[in-house]
Design brief:
By secondary structure, the protein is mainly α. It has 2 helices and 2 strands, in the order αββα. 14% of the residues are buried.
Length: 76
């Protein structure tokens, strides 16, 4: 089993997939988890729901971007 903190940094890839999976599941079910508020439902509070889902998607993009920058970075 590879070390999660070794080169390349697989932990960033795993976190990216986890954030993307959470965003997709939240979009499909209409229920997402917001910190300090518990579950937010799309039908009850749509603006808060879409804000949290957007944060999940942006987190996934950030983690994927960091992973690919570290993997594709020129070595010294």
């Amino acid at each position: 089993m590879p070390d999660l903190f070794s080169d390349p940094p697989y932990i960033l890839l795993i976190l990216g997939f986890a954030a993307f999976f959470a965003a997709v599941v939240s979009t499909c079910t209409g229920k997402t988890f917001a910190r300090f508020r518990g579950f937010v439902y799309r039908a009850e509070d749509p603006s808060e729901f879409w804000w949290v889902v957007t944060i999940y998607f942006l987190g996934a993009v950030l983690f994927f971007g960091l992973f690919f920058c570290k993997v594709r970075a020129p070595s010294n």
